[in-house]
Amino acid sequence: MTLAARLLLAFGLVAIFAAALVGLSLRDASRQIIEGDFEDRIEAAAVGVRRELAQEARALEGLLGPLCAHDTFVDKAHLLLEKARGDEAAIEPGARISMRHFVPDQARALGLDDLVLVTDKGLILAASDVSRTGTKAPELAKLLRSPAGGAPRLRPDPEGGEASLEVHCARSGGGVEVGLVGARRVGKILERIGASHGVELRIEGADRVKTTGDAVVRPIEVAEVPGLRVVAIAARERLHDALAKLDRAMLFAGSVALGLGLAIAFVLARSLSRPIVELARETREVVAGAPRTVKGRGGRELHDLADAWNRTIAELVAMRKRLAATERIAARREVARQIAHEIKNPLAPIRAAVETLRRLRAREDPAFDEYFEEATTTVLEEVHRIANIVSEFTRFARLPPPNPEPIDLVSVAKGVVTLHASAGEGVEKTGTRRVELSSEPIPQVMADRDQMVQVLTNLIQNGLDAASAVRPDPRVLVTIGPLAENKVRVVVRDNGPGVPAEMVPRLFEAYATTKEKGTGLGLAIVQRIVFEHGGEIAYREAKKGGAVFELHLPVSGPPLLDKPPAVETTVRGPDRSS
């Protein structure tokens, strides 16, 4: 018998025995008590709802008055409008932004669904619904001219939606007037109060109050809000639900049934836990040490699980061996290919120079001494070039892992930008080069400061070199800003010719370069640093020409991995925003 069948049989017997032993003996007595309590609760709920609605109305009466009378923000808004002589467009942008942030925050603090800061001309300066900011609402201007305080006003929704309780206050002087108009949706108030009393509350009306089935309806008068009439509805379905819950509860109420169920559960737990725990221990040993087969003990499912685990481990071991061998061969081939390709070019002139010297020497040519200086200079230059190639490759291969610390990435970028901008002053004769920084507020980033400097330096210098080759006014723009998912975005743009199409697929490969004297390791180093920081780097062509390199870095820093994650480098289409 399978484990699932054993569990189903055991717990089925427990449930049936408990229901038969305990449920029937208590059901009738409990039903009479619940039905009497239901009728008493309906009457008590109607009284409580009336009292709480009155308290809600009184609380709204004096909610906004202190803000208009004493709040410094309302004073400031009134003063700014007075200085602008009622012209909202003349208010400083910073003050308008402050008002737009204050009103939603104040609405949440006061528990209002809607709050607007409005002038006596009906112009909305700020609102909790930001889409209303800058619009005109003549009905609000009319409301400001009415006396503040007093009972809340019932405001129907103009589109036939949910009504609201509305209050207002005003501050006038200097020929201008501003005010706050706040509202709470009646539906939310009724829902909250009704939930506390276990009834459904609705606004009374022929088109609103519609009940179906067996229900008790109690009308409630709310004198504190003129025009507001509420009805409390208590469906008897709740009574039936309560009885149904009682029936279900009785199935588990018997002490004999509970004791029997616990005894069966204990026996089953012991019989099932031992083979599962043993299987888990064996699988942990397999993961931590040399692969070996595990044995399934217990039900048929555990035997099937152990067999599947053994087959999977065997396949993974074989696949890992094949993959490791393949990767070693591929790595050796790539290193050999790259080094051979880079060293081959300097060897050709060295060989030609040595062969020419040998021929001149063999025939005792008088030009030997004259050519000797030129040939040895060529050999030394090419040997120096080979040494540079080996040094660059060694530096790339020995690039240390990141040493992350909290850094201000904008400050780091500003230092690199300032260095490159000042380095170009007085150098260009036919034009000027510009290196600029545009940034938004971002949090501190966990990163290696020196490696971030190296990344920005390589990208900025590449952009200046590429642009200087084709125009007298090279320009590089560095943009830094926040991203979703706790990341930051760094974009480096230049106004150069961009990357040739044939070079794009090999852009981040070692030794891939379009420069005559470049090693082709700059972008490979940049990519490796970015990947080891858990980020991404991508290239795209700007719409107006030039190259765009975009980096995404996690704020939390490099992942805790032994090696950088396998992040794919993407090459995007033209940048339509440049």
TrEMBL record:
Pfam families named in the record: HATPase_c, HisKA
Keywords: ATP-binding, Cell membrane, Kinase, Membrane, Nucleotide-binding, Phosphoprotein, Transferase, Transmembrane, Transmembrane helix
A molecular function GO annotation: ATP binding
Membrane-spanning intervals of the chain: 249-269
UniProt main location, coarse: membrane
PANTHER family: SENSOR PROTEIN CREC, SENSOR PROTEIN RSTB
Descriptive protein name: histidine kinase
Originating organism: Polyangium spumosum
Lineage, top ranks: Bacteria, Pseudomonadati, Myxococcota, Polyangia, Polyangiales
